[in-house]
Specification:
alpha/beta, 2 domains, 17 strands, binds pyridoxal-5'-phosphate, eight-stranded parallel beta sheet, Lyase, Ornithine Decarboxylase, Chain A, domain 1, 14 helices, TIM Barrel
């Protein structure tokens, strides 16, 4: 662990007015003006921490790659739910941001994010009315549909509001939502283009079942098959004389597959910003087991707050600090040979028997997250750090916006 004494000799500027008491730290945290004033070791735990060097590198890797491939980039905000990150992506060249829920999209719109794509259908009165309201504020917003009745309902609501809204057809390429690709989808598009208050934008096809296929070649085969159905649907529409110049899909696991498929115009990945253990396991293009195209920028910072024996420490991060949907636990970064297991709502147990390093009471332990999206949704804020220095506090603005 980097101690304040070591840092004093290397970074005096940071520590010139450094806090000495918790009350001082608390005041700085509450002010939000943290840059140059706090170190990671000052933070209360568990804290959700995002490493800025890694995040910036991930944004630049993805934007650089997609630019080279000539594809638009509309990252999915369901991962981070944070307007600051959406703005950083826009600054890097993103055409907008995806949102999974109308609540997420509203929050992003409130904070100045445009180019929104709602990747799930607006079914139900409350969604439809809010969609039309959002479209009035942000006319470039795109909504997906997979059903004729819902299309008619959207058109009616848009007509009543005197608006025209953009819609795209959502294709069922992953056995989840969407309409069957090919003729059924084309039939729905023929219905859409007849609606006076809807503007047909194109196709969304998210092959989520391919994103985590282990091994690049297997993933490529799966994604090419799934996305091929979307490209074929686009061809059918064009043969019918319906312009379809937009096809959005793709994920962190398939960005370097889908962006090579002719006919796909836009990639909508999300997890690449943070990465997680689930994605680390999918395997790289060169056949390696570890998927390292993007860096693990997101961790949970915890404290060892009990040490029942030399073999274990108990951390202050448990079931409430991570999502628990994966069969593998968080991993303690920089503590090789340790094993984490959940010890209850507030507790994590770190087995030190194979550890290369000792962990003492009060030591900080940084844990890589099994699954980023639902873990982020557990926190009000994320702390942006550069090395050991705290640089900013970002609100998880759309936290809990699940409706
Ligand atoms: C519709 C849609 N598009 C894109 C993504 C981004 O996928 P990933 O986080 O794997 O990059 C998701 C994630 O669930 C999604 O649901």
């Amino acid at each position: 662990m980097v101690t304040r004494r070591i840092l004093l000799s290397t970074a005096p500027a940071v520590l010139a007015g450094a806090p000495r008491t918790w009350a001082e730290v608390e005041k700085i945290l509450a002010s939000g003006n943290v840059k140059g004033k706090l170190l990671k070791e000052d933070l209360p735990t568990p804290s959700l921490v995002v490493d800025l060097d890694a995040l910036e590198s991930n944004i630049s890797t993805m934007t650089g790659y997609l630019k080279q491939q000539g594809r638009a980039f509309r990252p999915h905000a369901k991962t981070h739910k944070c307007a600051e990150i959406a703005h950083r992506c826009l600054k890097a060249g993103a055409v907008g941001a995806c949102a999974a829920k109308i609540g997420e999209a509203e929050v992003l719109a409130d904070r100045g994010v445009g180019g929104l794509l709602l990747t799930t259908a607006m079914v139900g009165r409350y969604r439809i009315e809010r969609a039309v309201r959002l479209a009035a504020r942000k006319p470039d917003t795109i909504f997906v549909v997979d059903n004729a009745q819902n299309t008619t309902d959207l058109n009616e609501a848009a007509r009543a509001a005197g608006k025209k809204i953009n819609v795209a057809v959502d294709l069922a390429v992953a056995g989840r939502t969407g309409i069957t690709p090919g003729e059924p989808a084309a039939g729905l598009v023929e219905h859409i283009v007849k609606q006076p208050n809807l503007k047909f934008k194109g196709i969304q096809a998210y092959a989520g079942h391919c994103a985590h296929i282990l091994g690049f070649e297997n993933r490529k085969k799966g994604s090419e098959e799934a996305m091929g159905k979307a490209v074929e649907t686009r061809r059918i529409l064009e043969k019918k004389g319906i312009e379809c110049s937009w096809l959005s899909g793709g994920s962190t696991g398939t960005y370097n597959i889908d962006s090579h498929i002719d006919g796909i115009t836009e990639i909508q990945p999300g997890s690449f910003l943070f990465m997680d253990i689930d994605y680390n396991r999918i395997g790289s293009k060169d056949g390696g087991e570890f998927y390292g195209d993007f860096k693990n920028s997101l961790t949970v910072l915890a404290t060892a707050y009990s040490k029942p024996s030399d073999d274990f420490v108990i951390l202050d991060a448990g079931l409430k600090a991570f999502s628990t949907d994966k069969p593998f636990p968080p991993e303690a970064r920089a503590l090789k040979g340790t094993k984490f297991s959940f010890g209850g709502d507030e507790h994590g147990k770190l087995d030190l028997r194979g550890a290369a390093k000792k962990v003492n009471l009060g030591d900080r332990v940084e844990l890589v997250i099994p699954h980023c999206d639902p873990s982020v949704n557990l926190y009000d804020k994320m702390i942006a750090v550069r090395g050991q220095q705290v640089e900013a506090i970002w609100a998880v603005d759309a936290r809990g916006k699940v409706q």
